[in-house]
Amino acid sequence: MIDTYLQYYSSIFDSSSSNSNRDKKMAFQPLKKIKSNHHDDDNTIITTTTTSTSMTVDSNNSIDNPLLLLPFPLPTRPSLSIVLKGKYIREKIFGYVKEINEMNKIDDECQSTKGKDIIKLDHLKMISTFAMPWNFIKHYLPKKDSVMESISKVINRYCCHRNATMETFLHLLDWSPEDFTPQNEVVSEVATQGHTEIFEYLINNYYPRQITIRSMSQSARNASENGHLLIVQLLSAMEGVRFSKDAMDWAAAYGHLNTVRYLHENRTEGCTYDAMDWAAWGGHLDIVKYLHENRSEGATTYAMNWAAKNGHLDILDWLHENRSEGATTRAMDLAALKGHLNVLDWLHFNRSEGSTTNAMDWAAERMVI
Hints:
With 369 residues, the chain is mainly α. The protein is built from 21 helices and 2 strands.
């Protein structure tokens, strides 16, 4: 397999081209809205020691230590800096770290616990941690005077839980109506989760007395990003609530065409070129087409570069035929990094940007893995 990649590059690419100065941003990181180059050369000097060892060949010409056939010595104690030397290896390691953290987070949130075990816990955890239904928790709620300081916090946390329901929320308020004060960050998180009924109750009863206009604006962005159109419509109808260009940008990034269409038709904030770039990154061709036909912000070379990185050949082809921004050498480099041979083939025969030496380096490192 590695021979296929290396022969492919050796035959069609001029690998002497330098990196483009236009590549100021490379990887789309939705949570921080940062675009940066994660593949800069690492010039760390590494010193290793090796040991000699013998190689024996039996009568069948088989070698007892095939590692001796490698064209380079292996270190006796490979250090972390040696492992991180390879750009592809480094990216994979940190990618797996992120995946493991996400899996642990999911495990923490989704652990299966029996009811007989839950009733042994702090009774308020039935609300904030497990979001148990009212018919269950009503039998185990403590007396209010013993947990007065915790009640408001627990109900706030319940509202943010993905399993929260309006029925249980209202029962909790009946249980302790005078002790609940909604926190501003909780309101925007309810918008993120898409709990429309709870969100509407909060703004009808606590805005603007206890919920700030800033929290409403953040809620508009969160609801747009997660495609909760009913909450977006509710906020849009409220006087004084400010949206921003981020709303349409993030709705486009995550493929929420109905939200993008609503914001275009009912709001005046518009979007930025990030909307089309990020839609291309996410593989959302319908949104790329909609923005092209209805908006004037356009895109940048990152649209094609990111489409190539993520293997979205249909978007590459459409952008090539309908847009003029083009791509950079990053497109082919990133396609090689991710192993998209069909994308490499398409770029070679349809685009003229070529690649840098990173393309062959990353392809080779990928095959070594």
